[in-house]
Design brief:
The chain has 4 helices and no strands. The protein starts with 14 loop residues before the first helix and ends with a helix. With 140 residues, the chain is mainly α.
């Protein structure tokens, strides 16, 4: 079973981004708990919708940061965001139409995606921001 919890190794050093990531892990964990506790599909769907809404808001925040700093990896990073949003939308549609969804597989996928994305794309972005800050202001 995939661990669905925030780990200190995911910390980017940006408080707002880290809080948003922590909330994403919390929502995925709540989704897993709802599934394991046999909660209704309406509750599970609501948790998935909450995750989708929070994820979109988080991605918009990251994308605005990347654009404001002229991050060279913006297109690749945004594509990764767009792909997850499409997958979440598809999962929500599937849940709403036929209730046939392996929720354990879904929560494992989401936890794995978050961990890999944070340690991959997000870290590249944060390293760029740090280098840029040092270049722009040597006192930082």
């Amino acid at each position: 079973m995939t661990t669905i919890q925030w780990q200190d190794s995911y910390s980017t050093g940006n408080d707002r981004i880290d809080r948003e990531h922590q909330l994403m892990f919390e929502i995925v964990s709540q989704l897993r708990s709802a599934m394991e506790n046999g909660e209704s599909m309406a509750t599970i769907t609501q948790r998935l919708e909450t995750l989708s809404q929070h994820t979109i808001a988080h991605f918009e925040h990251e994308e605005a940061l990347m654009q404001s700093r002229r991050y060279p990896g913006y297109d690749r990073h945004k594509q990764s965001h767009d792909n997850l949003i499409k997958k979440l939308d598809k999962l929500l549609r599937n849940l709403q139409t036929n209730d046939q969804l392996d929720l354990r597989e879904l929560t494992n996928f989401l936890a794995d995606w978050l961990g890999h994305h944070i340690k991959g794309e997000d870290w590249k972005m944060i390293v760029f921001f740090h280098k840029q800050s040092l270049y722009l202001d040597p006192a930082v």
